[in-house]
Amino acid sequence: MSPPLSRHPSTKDALMDMLAAGELHLVGTDNCTFTCKQKQLGMSDFTKIPNGLNGLEDRMSVVWEKGVHRGKIDPMRFVQITSSAAAKIFNIYPRKGRIAIGSDADVVIWNPNQSRTVSKATHHHAIDYNVFEGQVLHGVAETTISRGKIVWMNNELNVEAGTGRFVPLLPYAPIAFASNAQRAKAMAFRSVQRDLKPEKLNGQNSEPVVLRPRMPAGGCSSIQF
């Protein structure tokens, strides 16, 4: 990112606390891998830095390490913020983000007891650095299944170009828009019926008194009633 989100050391823990509390709903990557040489285009002007970092390969392990392994979130919350919440926001749930009959067979078999050390020497990103370099992360994807086909197993990637598929997305996902109607209803103006008929006051009819502003002498700096 340019400039960085925050250099203060407390920012990372604060963001994880917000994830745990539900103030943040999911974790994405916006994975975009520019090399060090490409990043140096903005050495003297940060606005020229090509934006993007690696994250796709390490995202789930980082969230497991910082969240579940450290006791801030439970495994169910981990699944929500790495999978089902995104599917709901993109309005493709339950086709995606759920294991069920009729849903796409996209499954990650997760080993919470295995750990790995992140390194640019062993990652699969087409860049010469890794922002998580040297971190020991607990939680590893042993097997990844995409639409019923094994694409990752035994630390080997098995994918073919051209096997992707366009998934049309409908607008107005319920998770984001369902509350709008209720909010509008709650905030709508409601008329109040009042009885304006003259009432008896000491045996006489009492007409409503209408107060109107009167311009004071010498100017309009105030309004007198």
Textual characterization of the structure:
With 225 residues, the chain is an alpha+beta fold. It has one domain (10-158, 169-182): Alpha-Beta Barrel (TIM Barrel). 24% of the residues lie in helices and 16% in strands. It starts with 9 loop residues before the first helix and ends in a 19-residue tail after the last strand. Belongs to the metallo-dependent hydrolases superfamily. Hydantoinase/dihydropyrimidinase family. It is an enzyme of class 3 (hydrolase).
Condensed summary:
Keywords: Phosphoprotein. 24% of the residues lie in helices and 16% in strands.
Instruction: Indicate the percent of residues in helices.
Output: 10-25%
User: What's the arrangement of strands in the largest beta sheet?
Assistant: 1-2-3-4
The number of distinct β-strands equals: 6
Assembly annotation: single chain
End-to-end C-alpha gap? 59 Å
CA radius of gyration? 30 Å
Family: Belongs to the metallo-dependent hydrolases superfamily. Hydantoinase/dihydropyrimidinase family.
Pfam family, one: Amidohydro_1
Protein name: dihydropyrimidinase
InterPro entries: Amidohydro-rel, Metal-dep_hydrolase_composite, Metal_Hydrolase, Metallo-dep_Hydrolases_sf
SSE topology sketch:
Elements: H1 10-21, H2 36-39, H3 59-68, H4 75-89, E1 107-117, E2 136-146, E3 149-153, E4 156-157, H5 174-187, E5 199-201, E6 204-206
List keywords for this structure.
single chain, 225 residues, alpha+beta, TIM Barrel, 4-stranded antiparallel sheet, two-stranded antiparallel ribbon, 24% helix, extended, disordered C terminus
